[in-house]
Amino acid sequence: MARQTRRKSESGIYHVILRGINKQVIFEDDEDRSNFLECLQHYKKSCQFKIYGYCLMDNHIHLLLKESEHDLSIIMKRIGIRYVSWYNRKYNRCGHLFQDRFKSEIVEDDGYLLGVLRYIHQNPLRAGLVQSLDSFKVSSYTEYIHGEQIVEADFILDIFSTDKSEAVRSFKQFMNEKVKDICFLDYYEKTIVTDDAAIVLIRQYADVKSASELQAMEKRERDELLRKIKLIKGLSTRQIARLTGISQSVIARA
Fold first, then answer.
1. Half-sphere exposure (CA, 13 Å, Cβ side) for 169?
2. 55 — phi, psi (to 5°)?
Protein backbone atom coordinates (compact mmCIF):
# COMPACT_ATOMS: atom_id res chain seq x y z
CA MET A 1 0.00 0.00 0.00
CA ALA A 2 1.38 3.43 -0.98
CA ARG A 3 2.13 5.89 1.78
CA GLN A 4 -0.29 8.74 2.20
CA THR A 5 1.12 12.07 0.99
CA ARG A 6 1.81 14.47 3.83
CA ARG A 7 -0.55 17.38 4.03
CA LYS A 8 1.31 20.63 3.37
CA SER A 9 1.09 23.37 6.00
CA GLU A 10 0.23 26.80 4.60
CA SER A 11 2.08 28.37 7.54
CA GLY A 12 5.05 26.04 7.16
CA ILE A 13 4.69 25.06 10.84
CA TYR A 14 4.49 21.43 11.94
CA HIS A 15 4.25 19.44 15.14
CA VAL A 16 6.58 16.48 14.64
CA ILE A 17 7.06 13.28 16.62
CA LEU A 18 10.11 11.12 16.01
CA ARG A 19 9.99 7.75 17.78
CA GLY A 20 12.45 5.00 18.52
CA ILE A 21 11.93 1.87 16.43
CA ASN A 22 9.63 -0.51 18.32
CA LYS A 23 9.31 2.40 20.80
CA GLN A 24 12.79 1.70 22.14
CA VAL A 25 14.83 4.23 24.12
CA ILE A 26 16.76 6.73 22.00
CA PHE A 27 18.37 8.70 24.85
CA GLU A 28 20.33 6.70 27.39
CA ASP A 29 21.95 9.66 29.15
CA ASP A 30 22.44 13.44 29.13
CA GLU A 31 25.27 13.19 26.59
CA ASP A 32 22.83 11.64 24.10
CA ARG A 33 20.32 14.43 24.67
CA SER A 34 22.98 17.12 24.31
CA ASN A 35 24.17 15.58 21.06
CA PHE A 36 20.67 15.56 19.61
CA LEU A 37 20.22 19.23 20.52
CA GLU A 38 23.53 19.94 18.79
CA CYS A 39 22.15 18.21 15.69
CA LEU A 40 19.09 20.45 15.86
CA GLN A 41 21.26 23.53 16.21
CA HIS A 42 23.49 22.48 13.31
CA TYR A 43 20.66 21.88 10.84
CA LYS A 44 18.69 24.87 12.05
CA LYS A 45 21.51 26.94 10.55
CA SER A 46 22.22 24.92 7.41
CA CYS A 47 18.57 24.21 6.52
CA GLN A 48 17.28 27.60 7.70
CA PHE A 49 14.28 26.28 9.67
CA LYS A 50 12.92 27.76 12.89
CA ILE A 51 12.23 25.92 16.13
CA TYR A 52 9.41 27.03 18.41
CA GLY A 53 9.40 24.09 20.78
CA TYR A 54 10.93 20.73 21.65
CA CYS A 55 10.80 18.03 24.30
CA LEU A 56 13.14 15.04 24.47
CA MET A 57 11.47 12.07 26.10
CA ASP A 58 13.32 8.77 26.57
CA ASN A 59 11.87 7.03 23.53
CA HIS A 60 10.43 9.84 21.44
CA ILE A 61 10.92 13.48 20.50
CA HIS A 62 8.45 16.31 20.08
CA LEU A 63 9.38 19.21 17.80
CA LEU A 64 7.47 22.32 16.80
CA LEU A 65 9.19 23.84 13.81
CA LYS A 66 8.75 25.94 10.69
CA GLU A 67 10.32 24.81 7.45
CA SER A 68 11.91 27.32 5.09
CA GLU A 69 14.04 26.56 2.05
CA HIS A 70 14.16 22.83 2.78
CA ASP A 71 11.17 20.51 2.99
CA LEU A 72 10.30 19.00 6.36
CA SER A 73 11.20 15.50 5.16
CA ILE A 74 14.70 16.61 4.18
CA ILE A 75 15.19 18.35 7.52
CA MET A 76 14.12 15.31 9.55
CA LYS A 77 16.17 12.91 7.41
CA ARG A 78 19.36 14.92 7.93
CA ILE A 79 18.80 15.25 11.68
CA GLY A 80 18.07 11.54 11.97
CA ILE A 81 21.10 10.38 9.98
CA ARG A 82 23.50 12.58 11.93
CA TYR A 83 22.21 11.56 15.36
CA VAL A 84 21.87 7.83 14.60
CA SER A 85 25.41 7.68 13.18
CA TRP A 86 26.76 9.20 16.39
CA TYR A 87 24.55 6.99 18.61
CA ASN A 88 25.56 3.79 16.82
CA ARG A 89 29.25 4.61 17.16
CA LYS A 90 28.88 5.36 20.86
CA TYR A 91 26.97 2.16 21.68
CA ASN A 92 28.76 -0.08 19.18
CA ARG A 93 25.55 -0.94 17.38
CA CYS A 94 24.29 -0.83 13.80
CA GLY A 95 20.98 -0.47 12.04
CA HIS A 96 17.94 1.71 12.53
CA LEU A 97 17.21 3.63 15.71
CA PHE A 98 14.19 5.66 14.66
CA GLN A 99 10.87 4.51 13.32
CA ASP A 100 11.06 4.64 9.51
CA ARG A 101 8.72 7.58 9.07
CA PHE A 102 8.25 10.45 11.48
CA LYS A 103 4.74 11.66 12.26
CA SER A 104 3.66 15.24 11.66
CA GLU A 105 0.61 17.46 11.83
CA ILE A 106 0.09 20.91 10.40
CA VAL A 107 -0.28 23.96 12.65
CA GLU A 108 -1.98 26.90 10.96
CA ASP A 109 -3.45 29.20 13.60
CA ASP A 110 -2.19 30.87 16.78
CA GLY A 111 -4.66 29.10 19.05
CA TYR A 112 -3.59 25.64 17.99
CA LEU A 113 0.06 26.71 17.90
CA LEU A 114 -0.02 27.64 21.58
CA GLY A 115 -2.06 24.54 22.46
CA VAL A 116 0.45 22.26 20.75
CA LEU A 117 3.37 24.00 22.47
CA ARG A 118 1.68 23.54 25.85
CA TYR A 119 0.99 19.92 25.00
CA ILE A 120 4.68 19.42 24.16
CA HIS A 121 5.90 21.12 27.34
CA GLN A 122 3.48 19.17 29.54
CA ASN A 123 4.51 15.78 28.12
CA PRO A 124 6.88 15.04 31.04
CA LEU A 125 4.12 15.97 33.52
CA ARG A 126 1.65 13.58 31.92
CA ALA A 127 4.28 10.84 31.97
CA GLY A 128 4.89 11.41 35.70
CA LEU A 129 8.57 12.27 35.23
CA VAL A 130 8.43 15.66 36.98
CA GLN A 131 6.11 17.69 39.19
CA SER A 132 6.70 21.03 37.46
CA LEU A 133 7.59 22.17 33.95
CA ASP A 134 10.78 23.94 34.98
CA SER A 135 12.09 20.71 36.56
CA PHE A 136 12.42 19.06 33.15
CA LYS A 137 15.69 20.22 31.62
CA VAL A 138 15.39 18.97 28.04
CA SER A 139 12.39 20.90 26.79
CA SER A 140 12.11 24.40 25.35
CA TYR A 141 10.07 25.64 28.33
CA THR A 142 13.16 26.75 30.25
CA GLU A 143 14.47 28.59 27.19
CA TYR A 144 11.36 30.75 27.12
CA ILE A 145 11.75 31.56 30.81
CA HIS A 146 15.51 31.84 31.28
CA GLY A 147 16.78 32.75 27.82
CA GLU A 148 16.72 31.13 24.41
CA GLN A 149 19.39 28.92 22.89
CA ILE A 150 17.61 27.06 20.11
CA VAL A 151 14.02 28.32 19.97
CA GLU A 152 12.71 31.47 18.30
CA ALA A 153 11.12 32.70 21.51
CA ASP A 154 10.01 36.14 20.36
CA PHE A 155 7.63 34.71 17.75
CA ILE A 156 5.64 32.94 20.47
CA LEU A 157 6.00 35.56 23.20
CA ASP A 158 4.75 38.33 20.89
CA ILE A 159 1.43 36.48 20.67
CA PHE A 160 0.97 37.15 24.39
CA SER A 161 2.30 40.71 24.56
CA THR A 162 4.79 43.08 22.94
CA ASP A 163 6.08 43.82 26.44
CA LYS A 164 8.71 41.15 27.17
CA SER A 165 8.15 40.80 30.92
CA GLU A 166 4.36 40.66 30.51
CA ALA A 167 4.71 38.17 27.67
CA VAL A 168 6.86 35.84 29.79
CA ARG A 169 4.43 36.10 32.71
CA SER A 170 1.45 35.27 30.47
CA PHE A 171 3.42 32.49 28.76
CA LYS A 172 4.20 30.82 32.10
CA GLN A 173 0.59 31.07 33.19
CA PHE A 174 -0.69 29.59 29.94
CA MET A 175 1.85 26.76 29.82
CA ASN A 176 1.09 25.74 33.40
CA GLU A 177 -2.69 25.66 33.05
CA LYS A 178 -4.09 22.25 33.93
CA VAL A 179 -6.01 21.46 30.79
CA LYS A 180 -6.21 18.44 28.52
CA ASP A 181 -4.82 19.65 25.22
CA ILE A 182 -5.70 17.13 22.52
CA CYS A 183 -3.26 16.69 19.67
CA PHE A 184 -3.65 14.41 16.69
CA LEU A 185 -0.21 13.02 17.45
CA ASP A 186 -0.64 11.53 20.89
CA TYR A 187 1.86 8.80 21.68
CA TYR A 188 1.63 8.96 25.44
CA GLU A 189 1.41 5.50 26.95
CA LYS A 190 0.64 4.91 30.61
CA THR A 191 2.87 2.46 32.46
CA ILE A 192 2.83 1.20 36.04
CA VAL A 193 6.59 1.76 36.32
CA THR A 194 7.93 4.89 34.59
CA ASP A 195 10.43 4.31 31.80
CA ASP A 196 13.16 6.08 33.78
CA ALA A 197 12.66 3.74 36.73
CA ALA A 198 12.37 0.70 34.45
CA ILE A 199 15.70 1.53 32.75
CA VAL A 200 17.44 1.60 36.13
CA LEU A 201 15.92 -1.77 37.06
CA ILE A 202 16.90 -3.40 33.75
CA ARG A 203 20.47 -2.14 34.08
CA GLN A 204 20.68 -3.52 37.61
CA TYR A 205 19.16 -6.93 36.81
CA ALA A 206 21.21 -7.39 33.62
CA ASP A 207 24.38 -5.69 34.93
CA VAL A 208 24.70 -3.50 31.81
CA LYS A 209 25.34 0.18 31.22
CA SER A 210 22.61 0.46 28.59
CA ALA A 211 19.37 -1.50 28.25
CA SER A 212 20.03 -1.81 24.52
CA GLU A 213 23.17 -3.90 25.20
CA LEU A 214 20.92 -6.96 25.50
CA GLN A 215 20.44 -6.87 21.72
CA ALA A 216 24.07 -7.85 21.08
CA MET A 217 24.22 -10.69 23.63
CA GLU A 218 24.42 -14.38 22.80
CA LYS A 219 20.91 -15.84 22.69
CA ARG A 220 21.19 -18.05 25.78
CA GLU A 221 22.58 -15.26 27.97
CA ARG A 222 20.08 -12.76 26.60
CA ASP A 223 17.08 -15.03 27.20
CA GLU A 224 18.21 -15.82 30.74
CA LEU A 225 18.39 -12.13 31.55
CA LEU A 226 15.05 -11.45 29.87
CA ARG A 227 13.42 -14.11 32.06
CA LYS A 228 14.73 -12.30 35.14
CA ILE A 229 13.62 -8.91 33.85
CA LYS A 230 10.11 -10.19 33.12
CA LEU A 231 9.77 -11.04 36.81
CA ILE A 232 10.18 -7.39 37.81
CA LYS A 233 6.83 -6.30 39.19
CA GLY A 234 5.10 -3.66 37.10
CA LEU A 235 7.06 -4.09 33.85
CA SER A 236 5.10 -5.16 30.80
CA THR A 237 6.48 -7.05 27.79
CA ARG A 238 5.70 -4.02 25.66
CA GLN A 239 7.66 -1.73 27.96
CA ILE A 240 10.66 -4.09 28.09
CA ALA A 241 10.63 -4.27 24.28
CA ARG A 242 10.52 -0.50 24.01
CA LEU A 243 13.44 0.01 26.39
CA THR A 244 15.71 -2.77 25.11
CA GLY A 245 14.85 -2.68 21.41
CA ILE A 246 14.13 -6.44 21.46
CA SER A 247 10.85 -7.53 19.89
CA GLN A 248 7.92 -8.50 22.09
CA SER A 249 7.74 -11.96 20.53
CA VAL A 250 11.38 -12.71 21.45
CA ILE A 251 10.78 -11.48 25.00
CA ALA A 252 7.61 -13.54 25.30
CA ARG A 253 9.42 -16.71 24.19
CA ALA A 254 12.39 -16.20 26.51
1. 6
2. -155, 125
H or E segment at 145?
Answer: helix 141-146
Query: Is there a domain that residue 126 lies in?
Result: yes
Asked whether residue 186 is assigned to any structural domain, the reply reads no
- How far is residue 103's CA from residue 181's CA, in Å, rounded to a whole number? 18
Give per-residue pLDDT as tens, 169-217: 999 999 999 876 666 565 434 446 777 778 888 888 888 888 889 999 9
Q: Are residues 107 and 47 in the same domain?
A: yes
Q: Can you give the CATH number for the domain in which 46 is found?
A: 3.30.70.1290
Q: Taking the complete model, does pTM exceed 0.85, yes or no?
A: no
Q: Is residue 190 part of a domain?
A: no
The CA distances from residue 219 to 149, 224, 238, in Å, are 45, 8, 19
Question: The sheet that has 103-106: what strands, in order across it?
Answer: 50-56, 60-66, 13-19, 103-106
